[in-house]
Specification:
Layout: H1 3-11, H2 26-41, H3 43-56, H4 66-79, H5 81-92, H6 97-105, H7 107-124, H8 133-136
């Protein structure tokens, strides 16, 4: 393993609630051992990216009620391919070479898992997407 891979693995957060057993599928194992830690590590970047997405889309998000905001987040991740690909890149960029090789074998299914986790993470942080004070006075 090269030094980049060692450094990446050393800074990944450990998720203590993760359960690994022989009965789980390879995709679920990859999700728990690689995707979840990588997404958790990139949490602040993912939040910043979504804040930027809100602003680039004329801050429509701020005028929505909670249910519509949740739909907005889901639609942004599922339907806006440019944004979705950007999010995927933020996560894949912290894969080790070994992780990437495993990922490429079943990227379609793993992308679905990845985006669902990202969506859940953004939804659980929805309170962070309140209108900034600069926009509140405008």
């Amino acid at each position: 393993m090269n030094s980049r891979d060692l450094k990446l693995k050393s800074i990944r957060p450990e998720i203590l609630t993760t359960t690994i057993n022989d009965a789980m599928s390879a995709d679920e194992r990859f999700q728990n051992l690689v995707l979840r830690p990588c997404i958790k590590m990139q949490n602040d970047l993912l939040i910043a990216a979504f804040r930027n997405y809100i602003v680039k889309h004329k801050s429509v998000f701020y005028g929505l009620n909670l249910d519509k905001r949740m739909d907005y987040i889901e639609n942004a991740i599922q339907k806006d391919m440019k944004f979705r690909n950007s999010l995927k890149g933020m996560i894949i960029g912290v894969f080790t070479v070994e992780d990437y090789v495993v990922y490429t074998k079943n990227s379609s299914a793993l992308n679905k898992r990845m985006m669902n986790i990202v969506k859940d993470r953004l939804l659980s942080n929805i309170q962070l997407f309140e209108k900034p004070d600069l926009l509140a006075t405008a």
